[in-house]
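Troubleshooting: if your tokenizer reports a length mismatch, compare your output against this known-good record of 120 residues.
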Amino acid sequence: MTDTITLSGLRVFGHHGVFEAERRDGQDFVVDVVLELDTAPAAASDDVADTVHYGELAQALAAVVGGEPVNLLERLAQRLADVCLADPRVTAATVTVHKPHAPIPLAFDDVAVTIRRSDP
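Known-good structure output:
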């Protein structure tokens, strides 16, 4: 049995991108994560220590997005997946990084990269 914990719409200001202006000026990034894990221990104990604390997860993900710049969303998504998988209870993580203000000279709603990583 696999359960999920979902954190959607985490908005963090960062300086990622290929272009100098993106790194200099920064922009908002939006992160969605879906963690796969067994939540039965937490359901039985009713203790947050037996599950992923989504508030702490949000802080850790925000630190990555607001931290060291990378060129590509693919690399940022991988870094975020690594944070999710650092908790041994998480068996897989799906991470989507949205860049709604990407430097595209056309009207668009969003650009996003989604990856799914699992514990080997």
